[in-house]
Specification:
SDR family oxidoreductase; Sc_DH/Rdtase_CS; oxidoreductase; NAD(P)-bd_dom_sf; binds NADP nicotinamide-adenine-dinucleotide phosphate
């Protein structure tokens, strides 16, 4: 397969890191983003041996819309043709509606929903040129909103709406849009959720990030005549 260019947020950890390693190992280019220059250096060092592919790490905080707009413009200019855009970066803050602070609402809505929307908008010309695949890494919380999960679930319900509208808008342009719904996955985010839930965390109890990444890779590698609009992946036990 010809090496391809993927814009992948959240390649520094968890599911995104696993996917970046898979793409780099087969020689593809991965353009990702880290929230600071120091974090960018760590991500470069961490993925240095992943394979022959090129890793480009831009610096932007996805919680800051002005930085996201700058990022989108820079990537659009540097990479005229983009084969996939994978929105994997995400944040979670549990809390009841009566208690959840403003910063937690804004960070979840900005990182999980607004940043994907702005990057889709600003990269759409580049995506259309390559008949690209857009993947939104969603969550079970994008379908069901449980107590304590309002902020995260609202952002992920919004992400589902973004994917559904975009899919319909881009029908006929060659751009395919997939929402991926993983259940609990053994990452830093899941460890944090357990802490906030006051439960002990054991990574071995949950699906591994590489399992979710392999599913996303399958979506990215579909022939142009096929698409998977929604993909649910769950722990088998
Ligand atoms: N883990 C689960 O159980 C689970 C289940 C369902 C869905 N998901 C979804 O799967 C996706 C990946 O989650 P994960 O579990 O792999 O999470 P993770 O291990 O916490 O990794 C999240 C990644 O997003 C990046 N990120 C977060 N906020 C950012 C910001 N403001 N600017 C730039 N980068 C930022 C993080 O950067 P740093 O490395 O610098 O922190 C990290 O690389 C998320 O969308 C999540 O909602 C996760």
């Amino acid at each position: 397969m010809t090496p391809r260019i993927h814009v992948l947020t959240g390649a520094g950890a968890g599911i995104g890191r696993a996917l970046a390693a898979m793409l780099l190992s087969r020689g593809d280019t991965v353009v990702t983003v880290a929230r600071s220059a120091a974090r960018a250096d760590e991500v470069r060092a961490d993925l240095a041996d992943a394979g022959p592919g090129e890793l480009v790490v831009e610096v932007a905080d996805l919680g800051d819309v002005a930085q996201v707009e700058r990022l989108g413009a820079e990537i659009a200019q540097a990479h005229p043709r983009i084969d996939s855009l994978v929105h994997c970066a995400g944040v979670v803050e549990l809390g009841r509606v009566a208690d959840l602070d403003t910063a937690s609402w804004l960070s979840q809505l900005n990182v999980n929903l607004t940043a994907p929307a702005l990057l889709c908008r600003d990269l759409m010309t580049n995506l259309r040129l390559a008949h690209a695949t857009v993947v939104m890494v969603n969550s079970g919380a994008g379908r069901v909103a449980n107590p304590d999960w309002a902020g995260y679930a609202a952002s992920k319900h919004g992400l589902r709406a973004l994917a559904d509208a975009l899919r319909a808008e881009e029908a006929g342009t060659g751009v395919r849009v997939t929402s991926v719904y993983p259940s609990r996955t053994a990452t830093d985010m899941q460890a944090k959720v357990h802490l906030q839930e006051g439960r002990p965390y054991r990574a071995a109890d949950w699906m591994q990030p590489s399992s979710v990444a392999a599913s996303v890779l399958h979506v990215l590698d579909l022939p142009v005549d096929a698409t998977i609009p929604d993909l649910t992946i769950r722990t088998s036990t």
